[in-house]
Write a structure and sequence with these properties.
With about 240 residues, the chain is α/β, with parallel strands linked by helices. It has one domain: Glycerol-3-phosphate (1)-acyltransferase (3-Layer(aba) Sandwich). The protein has helices spanning about 1-30, 35-55, 85-90, 110-115, 125-145, 170-175, 220-235; strands at about 60-65, 75, 95-100, 120, 145-150, 180-185, 200-205. Helix 4 (about 110-115) links the parallel strand 3 and strand 4. The longest helix is centred in the first third of the chain and has 27 residues, at about 1-30. The radius of gyration is 18 Å and the shape is globular. The chain starts with a helix and ends with a helix.
Length: about 240
Amino acid sequence: MRATFTKWLFIVYLLGSGTLYSMIILLLFPFVGRAGRYWLAKQWCRALVFVMRWLPGVSCSIEGLEHLPAGPAIILCRHESTWETLTFMALFPRRVSFVFKEDLLRIPFFGWVLRGLDMVSLNRGSARQAHQAVTQESAEKLAKGDVIVIFPEGTRVAHDAPLRLTSGGVRLACATGVPAVPVVLNAGKVWPAKGWPTGRGHIRVVVGPAFSSQDMSQQDLSRAVHEWMKNELQQL
């Protein structure tokens, strides 16, 4: 009973604070630049990480940040729940830009804030046109100092699901010439791919080594990323 109550209390907080904070951010958007908008959104993510520890009882940690290059990079991350999209801005010291489906921009308040954060939107039209558009947008964000976050499995998956990476993330790294950094986590053990947190737990995020997209072929890079992620997932 208590677990159910805290879960729903957290849901109310998440949706309520998200809507309220989105309204505040939208009001301030005309008066702050790109960096200021990101900073405002990051504060909500930090508050959410703090609240998660007390309501659903979900804590988190991130390991391997020393592997993140000082320059531009593309993070290829396992996607197991909504959790990572809500917390990565708080956990990573660098500015991150997600590659997300364009449909999210139509969500009231959240989508409007997302548009103002100037990240990378993906229009799921023809695969070739989508790749060209994402490559161009990503190159622009990388030139501004962002780290691009892409979920190469294309959708949320259960933690114990087999690792199946599409070629898009590695192709993007090769097209932009920046390192690919694999990231794995165990969020799906606490927060299912479809649904809300199921109880107390600790989520670990592990950042892997940076693989050069200039010193390896696309096939070798894909193989190296896949092997590292597969081995690390077995330990989470």
